[in-house]
Amino acid sequence: MMNHRTIQTPLLSLSERVYRMLLIAYPAAYRREYGALMVQVFRDMCRDSYRQGGAAAVALWWCSTLLDLVYTAFEQRRKVRFTVSKSTFMRLTGVLLIVGGAFWSLAAFSQFQPDDHYTYYGIYQLLIWLLAPAFLLVGLGCFGLGLHIRPTLGVLGQWALYGTGIGALVMAVGVVGTSINDDLWNVWMAGGLVHMLALTVFGVLHLWKPALPIFRALPLMLASGWWVMWTSALRTTSQTTNNTLSFLFIVGMGMVWLAIGLKMHRQQSQELVPAAS
Fold first, then answer.
1. Are residues 155 and 77 part of one domain?
2. Which of 181, 185, 188, 220 has its CA 20 to 30 A from that of 174?
3. Long-range contacts of 151-156 (CB under 8 A, 24+ apart)
4. What long-range pairs does 5-13 form, CB within 8 A, spacing at least 24?
């Protein structure tokens, strides 16, 4: 009988690489002491999950891992009396949006599955499951953006981004819940509605007074993409055309979040140079 520790797939390899990258959230001393052990435990748990339930079980484990990582990382920062400065928090925010946007974009390829998209199978199921960590990471990133833009857009702008983040987190729960009970699809849809409405409010505010180092209309364009998908305004009688349009909208949204994360990360890196000198 094969030892489950020898199981290796592209999904497991990718998961380990992403997890290694996310460990940057912990203090450097903590990573040096426990980083290797944490990666080993994560790798073993991923393999156990894959052996027992395939890609869906790995996705569930990822959701649990991300929530635990965020909590324990901040707890470890607190223990070493780490003060969450704007520069440090924005650096973490950028990483969250970059990784979340990348997952979001990869998930778009699930739309190329032939036939209807009521259920997914094979590689397409794996791709659609990437939306769970994508929504979770983008949602957390939106909370970071909300703290950043308050001096410019005030409480309304901040809570518009908080609402965007809450909607994304609810969608992440919906993606996981749908695998357990199809009726939980409504959770996914409710989260999407909250995300879309809050993002629209922020998009209008950002158009009026830019608060992020990005094209001022970009958040509203992102919200418009949600509205087009939500109302099926461009839906046609051709399934192939619909699949292509869905792919373009989803990958576009993911690339926008990734681009915002890159801009925030770059801005933070530039701000650190004068501070270091």
1. no
2. 220
3. 152/209, 152/210, 152/211, 153/202, 153/205, 153/206, 153/209, 153/211, 156/201, 156/205
4. 5/44, 5/47, 7/47, 7/50, 7/51, 9/50, 11/50, 11/55, 11/58, 11/126, 12/43, 12/46, 12/47, 12/50, 12/58
Number of structural domains (the chain) is 2
CA atoms of 76 and 70, how far apart (whole Å): 10
Query: Which is more confident, 171 or 12?
Result: 171
C-alpha 141/C-alpha 70 separation (Å) is: 11
Read off φ and ψ for residue 8, nearest 5 degrees: -150, 125
253 pLDDT exceeds 90? yes
Q: Taking phi first (over 0 means left), then psi (-120 to 50 degrees means alpha), and beta for anything else, what does residue 27 get?
A: beta
Q: Give pLDDT, residue 151.
A: 82
Report long-range pairs for 213-217 (Cβ below 8 Å, ≥24 apart): 213/263, 213/264, 213/267, 214/259, 214/260, 214/263
One domain, residues 90 and 209: yes
Co-location of 123 and 187 in the same domain: yes
Average pLDDT of the chain is: 82
pLDDT tens-digit map of 5-32: 456 677 788 778 878 877 877 888 888 8
Please tell me the distance from the alpha carbon of residue 32 to that of residue 70, in angstroms, as a whole number.
18
Classify 73 in phi/psi space as left (phi over 0), alpha (psi -120 to 50) or beta. alpha
CATH number at residue 136: 1.20.1070
The model's pTM: 0.69
Q: If you ran DSSP here, which 8-state letter would residue 112 be given?
A: G
